[in-house]
Amino acid sequence: MWNIRGLNKLGRLDYVKDLISNNNLDFVGLQETKKANFHCSVLSYIGSNFSWNYLPATGTAGGILLGFKTSKFEVIFWDIRQFSISAIVKNTVDKKLGSVVLFMARLMTKVNKNSLLNYMLSRLIGRVPC
Q1: For residue 29, what is the enclosing H or E element?
Q2: What distance in Å separates the CA atoms of residue 113 and residue 116, rounded to the nearest whole number?
Q3: pTM higher than 0.70, yes or no?
Q4: How far apart are CA 76 and CA 97, in angstroms?
Q5: Pair type for strands 27-31 and 64-69
Q6: Parallel, antiparallel, or unpaired: how do β-strands 27-31 and 2-3 relate?
Q7: Residue ranges per domain, the chain?
Q8: Rounded distance, CA 98 to CA 95, Å?
Q9: Which of 39, 90, 103, 123 is buried most, with the most CB atoms less than 10 Å from its CB?
Q10: Dihedral, CA atoms, 5, 46, 52, 36, nearest 10 degrees?
Q11: Regarding the domain with residue range 2-124, which homologous superfamily does it belong to in the CATH classification?
Q12: Chain centroid to CA 22: how far?
């Protein structure tokens, strides 16, 4: 997970693409993308063998991009909320389920630790398919 502080900045797309490729990453989470949307060609350029989804930025703040390598994970469920994006994924090797939740930083400043924990738990409980 990385606070990229703007994916539109010169060289950032190439850097992310190289980071994924050179380190053989299986999943990627970027915060503060500062992008309202992602065209399919941009996502394919970063990682064509990834399943991507995103939470749009609000104006010039926020934004999250989350991706999973399709040869390693099957995305079972995406959930995009006002301040977070989450996914339930199945490992393609052992078929075990897992989940990833990314929050925008501004949510962290608006809630205390107990509220945040309750929010996270409410997002995950009852979401796993049979």
Answers
A1: strand 27-31
A2: 5
A3: yes
A4: 9
A5: antiparallel
A6: parallel
A7: 2-124
A8: 10
A9: 103
A10: 40
A11: Endonuclease/exonuclease/phosphatase (3.60.10.10)
A12: 20
